[in-house]
Amino acid sequence: MAKSKYEYVKFFEQHPHLLPNTFLVVRIDGRGFHHLSSRYNFEKPNDRRALDLMNAAAMGVMKELPDVVLAYGISDEYSFVFDRSTELFDRRESKILTTVVSTFTSYFVHLWPTFFHDRALSSPMPSFDGRVVQYPSIQNMRDYLSWRQADCHINNLYNTTFWALVQKGDMGTAEAEEALKGTVASQKNEILFSRFRINYNDEPEQFKKGTLLFRDNGIPSAGAVIAEHHGEEVEVPKKRKEKERKRRSKAVIELQFADIIRDHFWEAHPWLLTDR
């Protein structure tokens, strides 16, 4: 490969690597989606087409990146959980982050006409930012997902009540915001039922719990597959890891509106998060 005197500038590049043996979460968020939702007249408090578009874009990411074992989405946010033994891009943070964000954005824009065939996109186009967070244990990883699902419930209950006051209670947005200031969950439920005959428990599970995507293959992560050699655990050869990775890439990706705070889901799908 030819070199030039200018090649020294490559030494200014930095390639931080993420810690080994940690779960990696890439969380993406829509940029300026408050304005985008108003511009394209999204339904309030939830636009099912927009949520289904987010899910379809996330599905595209999982199909292209087999090391993503599950993904969880609410509103304009999606979290992608990578196998803790992943060696994708040698665990280079910038490569993993930019690949997920750009792939998700590409699918979102590409699939837009499928879900909003009557509303063509125009500049400024939808875009997403992202971050990478590392979690060392299964408990940390589950607590992160529980945090996001708890936020989903809190925000959806507020938004459901807020928009009921605006759309059915003839309140202005400022008046509705003031009416809800300082209220707790039980009070919001009371407002919904007593004033609008809305039982929050009957609201769609997708809105209350968010969306979970996962590979339904029963295959543990590559790092969890170990062998015995003279009584000691040894890592599975790279060739076998790659074989398991290919198997995961062919697995069916399930979509559920599951409770991921309680233990039941994790007990039924133990291969999703493993200790190795």
Q: What can you see in these coordinates?
A:
The chain has 9 helices and 8 strands. The protein is an alpha+beta fold and 276 residues long. It has a 6-stranded antiparallel β-sheet with strand order 4-1-3-2-5-8, sandwiched between helices. Strands 6-7 form a two-stranded antiparallel ribbon. A hairpin with a 2-residue loop joins strand 2 (68-74) and strand 3. Helix 2 (48-64) crosses helix 3, helix 4 (138-167) packs across helix 5 and helix 4 runs parallel beside helix 6 (185-196). The longest helix is centred in the middle third of the chain and has 30 residues, at 138-167. The two termini are 40 Å apart. 29% of the residues are buried.
Number of helices: 9
**Share of helix among residues?**
40-55%
The biggest beta sheet reads: 6 strands, antiparallel
N-end to C-end Cα span: 40 Å
Radius of gyration, in Å, reads 22 Å
Assess the beta-strand content as a share of residues: 15-25%
Counting helices, strands and paired strands, the structural category is alpha+beta
Strand elements, count: 8
Poorly predicted sequence stretches spanning 5 or more consecutive residues: 223-231
Q: Tell me, briefly, the overall form.
A: globular
- Series of H and E elements: EHHEEHEHHHHEEEHEH
Strand order of the largest sheet: 4-1-3-2-5-8
The overall pLDDT, averaged over residues, is 91
